Amino acid sequence: MRPRLRSAGRQFSEFFKLFLHRVTNLWLLIFVSTTFRIYIMQDMLTRLSLKYQIGFVGAVGVLGLIVFAAAYFVSNTIQSRHQASVDEAAAMRFALDEVEINLLQARRTEKDFCFAATSDTWPDTRRWSAKFAKAS
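-> structure tokens emitted (136 positions)
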């Protein structure tokens, strides 16, 4: 016997009912556990004297500051590492631009020499070739 196919509307309504049931149970569980924790914490704090309660609040504050400082230190370390790599990439880009400019100038001088081969263009060619060799 072939199983009966359900319509899309019926599948959606069953899915929605299951989803709603699970979400409701989850919210109920969260509410009960939170309420339970609040009453236990209040009961625990009322058993302590006022000086211990104040000390507890101060300790929680100091612990929060320590966690914040640790997160700041870690993020600052990561950021400085990334900044160093960005600075290195910028320096390499600057050197590459300089090499490219010197190469283009040497090429220009070579073309000038090829078009007008005179003895006064030789020093220019040597100068740009030396600059290119020094930059690379």
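The CA atoms of residues 113 and 121 lie 6 Å apart.
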